[in-house]
Amino acid sequence: MLKTFPKGGVHPAEGKYSANSVIEKLSLPKTVSIPIAQHIGAPSKAIVAKGDKVKVGDKIAESTGFVSANIHSSVSGTVVKVDKVLDSTGYKRPCVIIDVEGDEWNESIDRSIELKKEISLTDKEIIQRINESGIVGLGGATFPSHVKLSVPDGKKIDVLIINGVECEPYLTSDHRLMLEKAKEMLVGIQIIMKALSVNLALIGIENNKPDAISHLQNLVKDYPGVEVHALKVQYPQGGEKQLIKALINREVPSGALPLNVGAVVHNVGTAFAVYEAVQKNKPLFERIVTLTGKSVKKPSNFMVRIGTPVTELIEAAGGLPEDTGKVINGGPMMGKALNSLEVPVVKGTSGILIMPVVLSARKKESDCIRCAKCVSVCPQGLEPFLLNKLAQLGKNDKLETNAVMDCIECGSCSYTCPAGLPLLDYIRLGKSKVSQIIRSRKQ
Amino acid sequence: MSTTILFTVISLSAIGSIAAIILYFVAQKFKVYEDPRIDQVEEILPAANCGGCGYPGCRGFAEAMVKADDLSPFYCPVGGNETMTQAAEILGKAVEAKDPLVAVIRCSGSPEHRKRVNTYDGASTCVIVSGLYSGETGCQYGCHGLGDCVDVCDFEAIYMDEETGLPVVIDDNCTACGACVKECPNDIIELRKKNKKDRKIFVSCVNIDKGGIAKKACEVACIGCKACVKVCAYDAITVENFLAYIDPNLCKLCRKCVDVCPTNSILEINFPPRKVKVEATETVETKKVETPVGPTGENEKKENDNNIINQEG
User: Fold this and answer.
1) Does any domain span residue A89?
2) A residues 261-280 closer than 8 Å to B (CB)
3) What is the ipTM of this complex?
C-alpha cells in the first residue's frame, strides 16, 4: 500500500501533456518587468533608478525585513524606469523595467556546469547566502526560504521533507527538474540538511511519475540520509500539512507550523535553487515554467528569466489556441486566471495553463443540497458548506470558531460541489476578514 | 380521589408562595438600576438599528449618550438634527446642529466610457472581485458594479442603473448611515454635505493613475490636469495623485469647474439647465484641445487591449 494522507482529497484528471518535454531555455525577451514584491512578507525596496546599467544577477531590490527577499536582475541592460505594471496578482504594482542588451553576467557567478558536491560553507553561511540570493519557496507559496531554515531556539527539527509531489494536474516543472537536474537537486538537499543539521531527508513523489522515482532511487545511494518515497496520487498531497501526514504520520496542530512537529518542508525547485546559490553563487533570477493546455500546439517546460512576459512563453509554445477561454497562472486547482497576457513571470510562477472555453466555464450555480461531499473531500477536516454560508452572512466570530484559518485554499470543495457553488471564493473572503480581526487583536 | 387533588393543590400553592417570597427578596437584593432616560431617549430614536452612529443599535447609542457629558461626538444620521435636539432636551444638554450628509458615487465608468477588457464569471460580489484582481475594465479603482452597496443598504436608497451598470443614490431615502461607504471595497462612495435642493458638484472619479493611463482606461476619468483648480475662485479644489477633490465645505456650487473639465469627470446634479448652454459646450470643446492630457507613460503602449481573457478565482 502506497502512503498518502488519510483525510479527504480528490483526484482530478491529470492532463500532464508536457511530462515528456525536455526543459528548454527560452530566448531572452526585449524587455523584462521585474515586480519588487514577489514573495510573502514585506515588499522589497528598489535600489536602482532610471538609466542604471545592470548585469545578470545584480541586486535590484533589497529585502526590507526578516520575512522579505532580495530581488536580482534576470537580464543585462538599462533600467528604463520603476513604475506600476499589471502583474499576476491582477493589480498594477511597482516593477523594475529593464531593456535587455546582450547577456552579460555578474562576474561572481560560476557559470560552469560541473557538479560541485563538497559543501564548504558553514550552516550560518549557508543561510546567509540563501537570504542574500533571494530564494523563496518555489512550489508557489513564495515564502522566503531563509526564514524556514532559521530554526528558533528551543525547537528541534529531526526531518527534512522535500516536496516532489506536484499534485496539481497539468504542471510538470518539478517532474522535469527531478529528471534533468536530479544530482544538483540532491546536493541542494544536502546543503539544506546541513543548514538545519538534520540527518534525514525524505523526498515525497506521487506515483504518477515512476521515471522520476526510479531515477532518484538510483541516485540517492550516493547521498547518505536521503530517501525517496512513492506516494499514492491524491490532491492536495503537495500541501505541507498533508505531505507531513503522509510521509511521517505527524499531524500539524491547528494554527501551528510544521516546525512544531519537528519537520521542515521544501520544494524540489527550492532545493535546486539552493544548490545554485550556495555552490555557484547564482541568485534566483530564473525558474522552470510549464506552459501547457489541452489545445496548446507544443506543451513545454521552459527555463525562463524572471520578468519575461507570459506572451513570450505562449509564442514559444506555438501561440495562443483559438478556443482559449482562460489563461491561468499556476495549476487548474489553485491557480488564478490572468487578466492580461503581458504580466511578467515571477518567482512563484510554476506554470501557465491555457484552458479551452469548454473546460474553463464555471458550473451554473444552484442550491446547496447538503450532500456533504465538500466535507468528505476537505483534507483539513473542515465544513466548507458551513464556512461558505457564515462568510456570506459575515459571521466572523463563528468562522473563527469553525477553524476557517485552517483552510489551505486547495479548492477541493469547489471542485467537487455538485451545485457548482463558489465555496472557496467565500471561504477565502472569510479568511481574509478573520485574519484582519486576529491581527487587530494582537496590536 | 378527592384527597389526592386536595393535597396536590395545597402543596403546589405552598411551593408557589414560598418561591414568590424568595424571589421577591432576591429581586430586591440584585436590583439593577437603569437610568429611565435611556428608555426615553431610545423612544425618540428612529429604531433603524443601522449602526450609522457607530454604536450597536439604537439602545446602545442611547446608553452612550446618557452616560456622556458632552454630546458633540454623537450624531444620529437617520434622525438628523431634529432627533438630536429632542434627545438633548431630555438629557438637559446642548447639541450643535450638524450638516446633513448624503452618499455620492464617485465613478461614472459606464460600459460606454470604460471598456471591458475581460469577463468575470466568479462569485457575484464586489469584495470577492477586488480580492482577486483589478476588475473587468482597465481601471482598477472604479466600480465593479456587482451591487454590494445595494445589498447592504437598509433604507432602499441605492439601486443599480441597468444601463450604466453603476449604483445610483436616491437622495430622499439616503440617511447617510455610512453602511455602503464601509462596504465598498474600492472606497468609491463618499458622504458629502447635502446642499439646497439636493444640488451636488463632485469629482466622479477615484482613479489615481497618471492622466494618460487613466484616460485610456476610462474616457471620463479625472486626469489631474488642474484646469478646475485654476478656475475655482474659492480654493475648494485640490489635486493629489492625479486626482482632483472638491471640498464640500468650501465649494459654493458656482459650476465653473464643471465647464472646464476636459473629461467631464466633474458632475453637476439637480441644477436647472443653463441659459447659454451652446456657449458653455463650446468652452469645453476649446479647453479640451488646450489642456495637456497629463504625462503619458510608455507603460500604456504596452497594455494589451486585444487579449480578452476570462477571469476566474
Assistant:
1) no
2) none
3) 0.88
